Here is the input.
Amino acid sequence: MPRTPLIAGNWKMHGLKDALGFFDELAASGAVSERRELLVCLPATLVAAAVHAARRHGIRIGGQDCHTESSGAHTGDISAAMLRDAGADFVIVGHSERRADHGETDDIVRAKAETARASDLTPIICVGETLEDREAGREEDVVGRQLAGSIPPVFGPADYVIAYEPVWAIGTGRTASAGDIAAMHAFIRSQVPDGEEVRILYGGSVKPENAREILALENVDGALVGGASLNAESFAAIAKSS
Ligand code: PGA
Here is the structure.
């Protein structure tokens, strides 16, 4: 079965209501096509309004994180069920900024992925090594451990998406080399059950200038785009490179 490319934006903690014109602009750019899936993961405050603005264009909306529980006494948190209720289809879990800023372990990420799936969301499970890990030559050990710990063993290949994001390439303007990306994506595919059917995205300073080369690599099934997803024109250019 062919793996449909997924081009996903991650707005992080950016975006107020007046940013929602993005979806009309993205649609007008001609980036929407049956050849690819387009997704934007937004701050929770914008999800419901963005679903309204994006759905008519066939663009999907996701959250950026969810709690491990579907409801409960967790002030300030948001559940997968709530994101689903607001119209989201996907949620990012285990982003390196969550792992670093909020101490999220593989066990927590796995629990989030489980609750996301139980609420009918597709989790995008993020993995990636630090610069220190790469310089010490242990990037495969680190990513292998994250995969084993973060992906629920009961998941089938269509239940989730993986995003490989080397921590040192996120928001830094540095991207991994084509060879390093290709090697890691092949490694990841070899590590997960039914790997041929799992979509594996690359993330870390993807921009219009490098998207074509990255998205053409074997085993790269799309991109998770931070900074360059804030602007409809650059996100569209990346999408059209797939
Ligand atoms: P970046 O972020 O494209 O700004 O490097 C990617 C991400 O964190 O998902």
In short: The mean pLDDT is 97. Residues 48 and 86 are 5 Å apart (CA to CA). The two ends are 18 Å apart (CA to CA).
